[in-house]
Design brief:
Its EC number is 2.7.13.3. It is an enzyme of class 2 (transferase). It is found in: Membrane. This protein is an alpha+beta fold and about 400 residues long. The chain folds into two domains: about 140 residues, no CATH class; about 150 residues, Heat Shock Protein 90, CATH 3.30.565. About 50% of the residues lie in helices and about 20% in strands. The strands form three sheets. A five-stranded antiparallel sheet has the order 2-1-5-4-3. Strands 7-9-10-12-11 form a five-stranded mixed sheet. Strand 11 and strand 12 form a beta hairpin. The protein is elongated.
Length: about 400
């Protein structure tokens, strides 16, 4: 699929380039040809208005730059007089075919293709003069310009083709990465779902077996229930991510008292962290409110606190802080003591199914919490990142305080 996308990208680019170059060169050739024709006709008009024998030496030199000759003829086609600036017209018999073709034309200006001549007719009640000018130089100039355009076009196509290849590689790279991560996501989701299903099926088969020990029956039923709850949690998280990917808003948008929401979540998580030996502290600036989805903002804080509970150092402290950043933004931080996260892993923390220490689902970690938090923050027009401070990992969430439209992924 990625290869076809690259080929399509290059083909579209090259088609656009071909059309643009074709239009540019066609316009150049057309305008040049029309300009040469106008100059040639103007030259003949001036020559017709000023007979050669009446010109000054300077004017004769100017007209001599282009070979021409004229014929004065009677209405019956008899040649009365001839004149030229460069042609030998002693043998008038050679002029009769040219004269005949020009007189047959009803146009004042025309071209005799077989002779490479342009003619210009001046008719008066008493005379008929026909001027002829050689257009070989015009045609040579157009042929040279055409060859130059073809060479420039071919070179341009080669250059643009190479540029298009580079652009295709650069433009498709995010799609390629998204496709790779999607396939990895499907594989990881299948693996995570397979584990509880295997446990459930194994215990169900043992219960169904007539030789199952009845004393172990409650234990096996409990095991099935635990794995079912675990699988339900995973499926709910996957559905939440799928809804966010499709741009479906999760929950109604309303004015949210963020200060109160943070205080409530801190109080709810305090016993959980205390049981695991962590001290939870908080510092919340009052009166911070924004327009958003309260359930989605709760998921952000829950994901950060759950992550701190799992990965903080034994006995390490966890601190939550909410404060304003100027008049338009606020900053939510969750700091947990522990080994600093390496720089190369900080972005990966927000990837789906990523677990920095290889924690397994049995420990309640699927690697989806921070991915859900990142999407929820993006929906509110904010940004989430992690940075180490001494022996503490600081997760930061920056949110706008003013109203903003819903932002799908």
């Amino acid at each position: 699929m990625i290869r076809r996308l690259k080929i399509k990208f290059v083909c579209v680019n090259m088609a656009i380039v071909v059309v643009m170059l074709g239009a540019i060169f066609a316009a150049l050739l057309f305008s040049t040809q029309r300009s040469l024709e106008r100059e040639g006709v103007e030259f003949l008009r001036q020559a017709a208005a000023s007979p050669l024998q009446m010109l000054s030496p300077g004017e004769r030199q100017q007209l001599a730059q282009s070979p021409y000759f004229f014929l004065d003829v009677t209405p019956e086609g008899e040649i009365l007089a001839v004149g030229s600036n460069s042609y030998d017209l002693e043998y008038r018999g050679a002029l009769l075919p040219i004269l005949t073709m020009a007189r047959r034309s009803a146009d004042q200006v025309g071209v005799l293709e077989d002779y490479n001549l342009r003619f210009y007719q001046v008719r008066t009640p008493t005379s008929h003069r026909i001027l002829f000018a050689d257009i070989s130089s015009e045609r040579h100039a157009m042929e040279s310009l055409t060859r130059g355009c073809l060479a420039a076009g071919a070179a341009s196509l080669v250059v643009f083709f190479l540029i298009s290849l580079g652009l295709a590689q650069w433009a498709v790279r995010p799609v390629e990465e998204a496709w790779r991560r999607q396939k990895q996501f499907v594989a990881d989701a299948s693996h995570e779902l397979k584990t509880p299903l295997t446990v459930i099926l194994a215990n169900a088969q043992l219960i169904r077996d007539s030789g199952c020990d009845l004393a172990q029956l409650p234990q096996r039923v409990e095991r099935i229930a635990q794995e079912s709850v675990s699988m339900r949690g995973l499926v709910e998280q996957l559905l939440e991510l799928a809804r966010a990917d499709s741009g479906i808003p999760a929950g109604q948008r309303a004015q949210v008292d963020l200060s109160r929401l943070v205080n409530d979540r801190v109080m709810a998580f305090e016993p959980v962290l205390f049981e695991n030996g962590h001290l939870l502290g908080s510092r919340v600036e009052e009166g911070i409110a924004l327009w958003g989805s309260a359930p989605r903002l709760e998921r952000v804080l829950e994901a950060l606190l759950d992550n701190a509970n799992k990965y903080a150092a034994p006995g390490g402290a966890v601190h939550v802080e909410l404060r304003r950043l100027g008049r338009r933004h606020c900053l939510l931080t969750v700091a947990s003591q522990g080994e600093p996260i390496p720089p190369q892993l900080r972005k990966k923390l927000f990837y789906r199914f990523y677990r920095g220490d290889g924690a397994r689902p049995a420990q309640g970690s699927y690697g989806l919490g921070l991915a859900i938090a990142r999407q929820a923050v993006a929906e509110h027009g904010g940004r989430i990142w992690v940075e180490p401070v001494a022996d503490t990992n600081l997760f930061c969430v920056r949110l706008p305080l003013r109203w903003a439209p819903w932002r799908g992924r």
